[in-house]
Amino acid sequence: MSNRHPREELMELLGAYALDAVDDDERAAIDELLDTDADARAELARFREATDRLAGPDVAPPPGLWEGLAARLGEDGPTALGRESPPVVVDDEHDRDDDTGPVDGPGTGAQDDRSNVTQFPAASPFPGRPGRKPFPTLAAAAAVVVIALVGAAVVLLRDDAAPATIDQLAQSALADGDHEVVDLVVDDRLIAQIAFDASGAGYFVGGELEPLAADRTYQLWGVEGEQVISLGVLGSEPSAFAFHSDGAVDAFVLTDERAGGVGQSEGELVAQVSLA
Amino acid sequence: MPSALEHTHDSQLLVLVASGRQDALAEVFRRYSGAVHGLARRLVTDATLAEEVTQEVFLRIWKAPERFDPSRGSLRSYLLAQCHGRSIDLVRSESARRRREEREGARQPPEPPSTVEQEVLGEAQASDVRAALDGLPDGERRPIELAYFGGHTYREVAEMLGEPEGTIKSRIRKGLSRMRADLHTVHGGGS
Prior knowledge:
The structure holds two protein chains of two kinds.
Chain A lengths: L6 H6 L1 H5 L5 H13 L1 H17 L10 H8 L82 E3 L5 E3 H10 L4 E7 L2 E8 L4 E5 L10 E9 L2 E9 L4 E5 L6 E8 L9 E7 L2
Antiparallel strand pairs in A: 1-2, 3-4, 4-5, 5-8, 6-7, 6-9, 9-10
Helix pairs in contact in A: 3-4
Chain B lengths: L9 H9 L3 H23 L2 H17 L11 H29 L12 H6 L5 H8 L3 H11 L5 H8 L3 H22 L5
Helix pairs in contact in B: 1-2, 2-3, 2-4, 3-4, 7-9, 8-9
């Protein structure tokens, strides 16, 4: 929070902030407050319920708008759409039980966003990295399928019966050419690598990850089709970690969670990589 | 044909978007493009510019899904806030361009120049918007109209209305709180 703007003053400004009616320096100070103050975030969420009412009724975008958008997504996306315009949901009747939720028409079955919203920890454990934001809840029933095999202390036996640490196996997997290797990058900085093979066996090497507080842990997730699966709880200072995935992973996601790990994410997104 | 992600929760859709899934973005678009485009049309009025705003809002969530923080409101609220900000920027620049052209005599305006809020508020007379605002005392309704539809800061609003800045801040807060309370009264909800 800025010294120029005491908390009380910024809380008073949240209504104007919700209307996008504050000056730039005030906006920056409020953004800073919101990063660390759960009460301020909750207050803003309440004001935004009100400002949503000012948006008025839905208007279906013209045909072709999705195709135009899809063409602008560039080559970053892993999948070609290969589909027609998504049918647009328009709230013709303006009959909302919950104005802040999705506005799907009857029978679409789409779900309300608010009832299951998870409150995320506010403070970033990485001071000076403002780009990190809370990771949306992994609402699918995520099965924690891998026991945390954290650090080099765990010893496995190779075929030749020579003991090898997870570190050594992971380094070997990164270099042997038999494993696909992907990079996790934050702010153009390589923070970790993942090596995995066709059987689903993989290694996470996070040598450049910043240590977390003792009550926090990194957690690795795999996106498999519609499911988000926990691949393991890595600890607060992970170096190397072994995991196994039963399905074909489309993307890896690394989050910062409370110590012990979670069945579905409550924490902040650290990095993600698509396997397109 | 229904999307395979039709029943996927918003928050998980964002996870999929973060992993680069275009079909997840398509589902977000399916759910909220009507709301976003409706607001853009009301604020920008120019159909082509409104389409551009709508595309930009969804392009932004594609590029930076981590910027959405569910503790600050729903995904719909977030997308609408993005749409509002971009639309007001366009309205301001368009208004400035028009005034510049008029000063230079490039063309004669068909009518006397109007204020931004007059331009956009005229397009925002939808009954539900009016219902939301009409429940407010004038002292709370006017600052909210000028800020939201006119794109004015609370300081500018205070100057326009000849009121102290603190009064305007307070009235905006009270007005929004009242609108939210009315919403839950009307729908019998609460949170």
